[in-house]
Design goal:
Organism: Pedobacter yulinensis
Pfam families: DUF4180 (PF13788)
CATH class: Alpha Beta
Strand order of the largest sheet: 1-2-3-4-5
CATH architecture: 2-Layer Sandwich
Number of domains: 1
Distance between the termini: 23 Å
Radius of gyration: 13 Å
Number of strands: 5
InterPro entries: DUF4180
Oligomer: single chain
Number of helices: 4
Protein name: DUF4180 domain-containing protein
Strand content: 25-35%
Helix content: 25-40%
Order of helices and strands: EEHEHEHEH
CATH topology: Transcription Regulator spoIIAA
């Protein structure tokens, strides 16, 4: 895993580069969040491929558990990917509602994440 630091008006942003799944459950998310928080980051940009595939199956509760960690600690998260392949109404609504806020966003590029 490589962390590329970026700056914004809100503070430091950590762009995560990895070919591996890094978050498979809420504990993994909390560990990543804590590691970044103690390095003075306020936001993380991570790729869709770094989340366990089950994250996008809302029935299992994984997404809710993981995103609750970011919400509890008021740590921003941007997930980068092509979400058009998720055709279910629930996941599409979930992404749409998340993107209406500022804490968790599902975006198509890192550049969009740095602007969000």
């Amino acid at each position: 895993m490589k962390i590329i630091p970026h700056s914004s008006a809100e503070g430091r942003i950590a762009e995560i580069i990895s070919d591996e799944v890094l978050i498979t459950n809420a504990d993994d998310a909390l560990q990543l969040l804590a590691d970044l928080y103690y390095q003075d980051f306020v936001k993380v940009v991570i790729r869709e491929q770094n989340l366990a595939p089950g994250f996008f199956d809302l029935k299992n509760g994984m997404a809710g558990d993981i995103l609750q960690k970011f919400s509890n600690y008021r740590f921003s998260l941007a997930v980068i990917g092509d979400f058009s392949r998720y055709q279910g109404k629930s996941i599409r609504d979930f992404i749409y509602e998340s993107n209406k806020g500022r804490l968790v966003n599902f975006l198509d590029s890192p550049a969009a994440a740095f602007r969000a």
